[in-house]
Amino acid sequence: MKQNLMYIIFFLVTLSSKASFILLPMDEATQQNHLKAYGITYWCLSKDYKASWLLNYRGGSFLLPDADEIRKECKIRGVSFEILSDSEEIAILDEISSPSQNMESVILEKAPKIAVYTPKGKQPWDDAVTLVLTYAEIPFTPIYDEEVLSDQLLLYDWLHLHHEDFTGQYGKFYAAYKNTPWYIEQKKDAEALAERLGYAKVSQEKGAVAKKIRDFVIGGGFMFAMCSATDSFDISLTADGVDICEAMFDGDASESNYQSKLDYGNSFAFKNFTLERRPEQYEFSDIDMTTKRRITPDKDYFSLMEYSAKWDPIPSMLCQNHTQLVKGFMGQTTSFDQNLIKSNVLVMGTCELNGEARYIHGEKGKGMFTFFGGHDPEDYQHQVGDPPTVLDLHPNSPGYRLILNNVLFPAAKKKKLKT
């Protein structure tokens, strides 16, 4: 009898301790490849596995069910993982749920459908998001003006914009590159595309694209923009119906006194900005801080804000990282003047030395947008023609983690933002 009881107890103990979960730790000391861990989580969602994002627990770890194919995929991709028993998983969730802990477990429901706005033939290293999506093995679909204007954004949950110019000024590259073959060819291609799509000017065609993207967000889409796509997008919406382009860009002079005709109510994030009229100036407006900042590379860092994971899960997800201090990096649009950011927009990352905003987030209609200043988190001052960033050398990049936070957060079961 006693022997049978011992067998039963042993069986129950064995059952309760059996491995049932996989934890992808995201702290600095444990995870050997933070970037590919996002890819594993996305892959699990695409395979209809359940997943949870453990906000502020060991750097924003991911909890997955235990399955042989998940273990195998982690090993193939070089992602660190830990096997948890039922009791260990319960203990972690109990810790997270405690009111004394600024943590939360967020259920991830489905893999978002991702579109990247990029012209055909563009090199992957010209776009940090394309680069990291490829590295993390997260599938995406490249789209451009034809797809946007034919309402194909309705097929996607998440849209990325990078080093783009929605104002029709060809990135303000005129002074430095107007005589180079690539600039001449890009201008020619853009004009031909605009004409094919029924527009007299590139600026008008890009403005129509910007409004389609605006409607995508208002309807419930998620939009992430970096570098010049941030301010040029808002400028395009603000200057809707106003000619702000000089003759070298569109063949005729800009409207007189166009600054006074801007409608800041149309923009997503920025207000009261002043446009840069000089065509030879590599700048769109005073939104960007690139020419105003006086920070040496060794001191160029920005701090991530800390939010209540239980009450404000969305900004908490977007700021998950293994460090609160992120190395700065430059771009055509490096950062944003905080005085020109609308009051309903969250500033999630700031440089303490000059108060510039690096990372901002807001709502528009039923959707959301995030703007991230700079071009490439691991290339401090990217220049035209520079070689690609090799992400195998930066598998734990905090800056690239912020990009992937934005890729994954549309998968989360939403809670209403409180702040």
UniProtKB/TrEMBL annotation:
Organism: Flavobacterium cheongpyeongense
Name of this chain's protein: Asparagine synthetase B
Domain of life: Bacteria
